[in-house]
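User: Reviewer 2 asked us to show a designed sequence for the structure in our supplementary figure. I'm pasting the structure tokens here. Could you produce the per-position amino acids so we can include them in the response letter?
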């Protein structure tokens, strides 16, 4: 009986084709992501703080947030990072609470423009 060598040839040619395909695929992904990253970096970054007066579980807030974001992104001139705070103002009406919230927001966002 003779050993079967055709399987070895098939595997070596398969690996060669597989390697060239992987190289081609990797090159395409590199070029694609490189061009996307270059376009992303060219936009100036802006930060937006959205303050909601009520508590976070109100049903209207996700719709309002979506509307604000879609309006701001319509120009597509900037990359926008959003910060969203819910002040729960209706349950906390004490003026001291407002001052403490203001102090908290100043501290929390002091390093951000």
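Assistant: Here is a per-position design you can include in the supplement:
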């Amino acid at each position: 009986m003779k050993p079967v060598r055709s399987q070895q040839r098939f595997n070596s040619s398969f690996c060669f084709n597989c390697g060239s395909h992987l190289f081609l695929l990797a090159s395409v992904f590199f070029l694609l992501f490189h061009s996307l990253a270059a376009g992303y970096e060219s936009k100036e970054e802006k930060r937006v703080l959205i303050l909601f007066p009520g508590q976070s579980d109100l049903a209207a807030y996700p719709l309002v947030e979506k509307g604000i974001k879609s309006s701001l992104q319509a120009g597509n001139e900037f990359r926008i990072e959003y910060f969203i705070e819910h002040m729960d103002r209706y349950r906390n009406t004490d003026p001291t609470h407002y001052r403490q919230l203001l102090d908290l927001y100043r501290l929390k966002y002091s390093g951000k423009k």
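For the response letter, you might also mention the following. The chain has two domains: 1-42, 44-113. The chain has three helices and two strands.
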